[in-house]
Amino acid sequence: MVDQVLTQAGVGFELTDDQKMLQKMARDFTAKEIIPVAAEYDEHAKFPEDIFHKARELGIVNMNIPAEVGGVGATVFEECLVAEELGYGCTGISTSISTNNLGSLPIILAGNDAQKQYWLGERIVEQGEFVSYCVTEAGAGSNVVGMQTRAERKGDHYLVNGSKIFITNASHANFFTVFAKTKPEAGHRGMSAFVIDRNSPGVKIGKKFDKLGQRASDTAEIVFENVEVPAENLLGQEGQGFYIAMNVFDYSRPGVAAAAVGLQRRALEECVKYAREREAFGVPIYQHQAIGHKIADMAINYEASRLLVWQAAWMVESGHANPKAAAYAKAFAADMATKAAVDAVQVFGGYGFMKEYPVEKLLRDVKIFQIYEGTSEIQRNIIVRELFR
């Protein structure tokens, strides 16, 4: 009776047949193409370009590109279903092959028809190119308004100078969505967004960073030295950059949180399997409450994280996008994924510290979830701001 009432009220968690098919496609792809090579790509910090193109042919990357320019036109919720499955396999590889979703968002949200057709339709869909999202600077991470990159109008073009750091896929991107100050004295109202081609004179890619985890994900610095950017590459209007960036987060954070949920599920399943087989004091270790309760908490937090992600995705699609919902999902999923990875190593004991067991990599990969796409502290600042409006 309760189930009938909930269904009639429009509340339910059953996936549609199409969504189940998409989820299974991503899960099968992960099992076949990602998990078998994840350790190798991690050890050698190898960029998964081959995996990206296989996923592109299957239709599980570039999912948010609108159908009118040749893309899949997937919903944020569908992106989250795929992100969880890819994150289960390897969050380093999943970050690399899903970054186009993030880099495309400023164009999707603020670009005109011509910009969408060229950059999204021709460059991404038809040519299979990579795009990177460029906001973070050495002195401007959480404080986006503190960026120093400048874009000065010079007739029919802008002259861009500055640098961006910790940019995902920078070494491989064919173009970038870049945020810069057009009116530095105007604070957050002086920021604008541009599309900059990698081949533009003055664009220089710095060294690739050697990272603790998610090593299959390329991260590098970009320098812009007197780069001439056509005025037609401005996204939206001058001064709208900050608002575009904040809008992007509503769409991007649920997907990032979903990848963290995937890592949680991987930790949970590895622990269940190991704790059933490993014995101590004559019984499987899950029968010892100290271990069993860790795994139970892992399961609770996984389910709760996923529900928060689904809620945030639903709110975006239904036109009720709220930064608080995205912050709930991102902060909780990141924090609980980190706890799951730490506890998974503890469940495995000494074996968990060894590279031949999968939880060692989960622990290295997970930490960045509390940092990128807005730190867990920033998510809490957003929540406080929204609660006390």
Describe the model.
- With 389 residues, this protein is an alpha+beta fold.
- The strands form 3 sheets. Strands 1-4-5-8 form a 4-stranded mixed beta sheet.
- The radius of gyration is 21 Å and the shape is globular.
- The two termini are 39 Å apart.
- The N terminus is likely disordered.
Question: What would you say about this model in short?
Answer:
The protein is α+β, with helices and mostly antiparallel strands. The chain has helices at residues 2-8, 17-34, 38-43, 49-58, 76-89, 91-110, 113-126, 241-277, 289-317, 323-348, 359-366, 376-387, and strands spanning 131-134, 150-154, 157-168, 175-181, 191-197, 203-208, 219-230, 234-235, 279-280, 283-284.
List the helices and strands and how they pair.
Layout: H1 2-8, H2 17-34, H3 38-43, H4 49-58, H5 76-89, H6 91-110, H7 113-126, E1 131-134, E2 150-154, E3 157-168, E4 175-181, E5 191-197, E6 203-208, E7 219-230, E8 234-235, H8 241-277, E9 279-280, E10 283-284, H9 289-317, H10 323-348, H11 359-366, H12 376-387
Parallel strand pairs: 1-4
Antiparallel strand pairs: 2-3, 3-7, 4-5, 5-8, 6-7, 9-10
Helix pairs in contact: 2-5, 4-6, 5-6, 5-8, 6-7, 6-8, 8-9, 8-10, 9-10, 10-11, 10-12
